[in-house]
Amino acid sequence: MSDKKPSPTRSTFRHGDLRRALLDAGVALARQGGPGAIVLREATRRAGVVPNAAYRHFESRQALLEAVRAAALAALARAIEAEIDAAAQLPDPRRRARAAFRGVGLGYLRFARREPGLFRTAFAARPFDVHERAAQDDAARGASGMDPFELLCHALDGLVQAGVLPAAQRQGAEFMAWSAVHGMAMLLLDGPLRSLGEAPSQALAERLVAMVEQGLLAEAAPQ
Fold first, then answer.
1. Which of 116, 112, 128, 109 is nearest to 70 (CA)?
2. Residue in 46, 50, 30, 49 with CA at minimum distance from that of residue 38
3. Is the pLDDT at 171 greater than 60, yes or no?
4. What CA–CA distances, in Å, run from 170 to 13, 67, 158, 200?
5. Residue (of 135, 129, 177, 123) closest to 154 by Cα position
6. Rounded Cα distance, 117 and 36, in Å
7. pTM above the 0.85 mark?
8. How many C-beta neighbours within 10 Å does residue 53 have?
């Protein structure tokens, strides 16, 4: 009888499991170190397969980065949806619309603080073009079927439908709101506000979102 031990068998992946394992590994790498940490060889090592096996699902590091980017955007969308869902409990439609709009900004900023690696990755793989909705971007949507930008637009439309924001003031409001909130996110992550603790960061987030809301409504108010 041979004393030679049998060589360990490698787990096999079926029905897209390998792609999911590689994507999960890429998401974990992004969570730990942002987009620069996403390395295809390291993802294959974590998935427990040889590097060549990955190329059937991701032909390059950029392809994996794009997939992780979509997953990060979807996670951001779900964080925003959680805030919007809380606002949906309010009975008054005007208050509900305003709370949903604030929820978009608060969810965005909270996600940036709690998941900085994924947040950076969401906007690092390639320019986030709001005018292009490619089929592969379906993976970037939350449970509602909307991505973060679409959720913002939907919340603004809700303000109009509730009679809070005149339709004439709606055009372009998404870009003003987004630039303010994204700018604050970057100040908190990589700028002079990065050393703030959770409580002061949340207080600033709430003030900023309230300021954006008030600015939109003040612009809409009759002179």
1. 128
2. 30
3. yes
4. 49, 33, 10, 31
5. 177
6. 9
7. yes
8. 15
Q: Which residue has the tokens 């600033």?
A: 204
Give one DSSP letter per residue of the chain, joined into a string.
---PPPPPPPPP--TTHHHHHHHHHHHHHHHHH-GGG--HHHHHHHHTS-HHHHTTT-SSHHHHHHHHHHHHHHHHHHHHHHHHHHHTT-SSHHHHHHHHHHHHHHHHHHHHHH-HHHHHHHTTSS---TT---GGGGGG--TTS--HHHHHHHHHHHHHHTTSS-GGGTTTHHHHHHHHHHHHHHHHHHSTTTT--HHHHHHHHHHHHHHHHHHHHHHHS--
Give the Cα separation of 13 and 49 in Å (integer): 10
Q: Specify the pLDDT at position 153.
A: 96
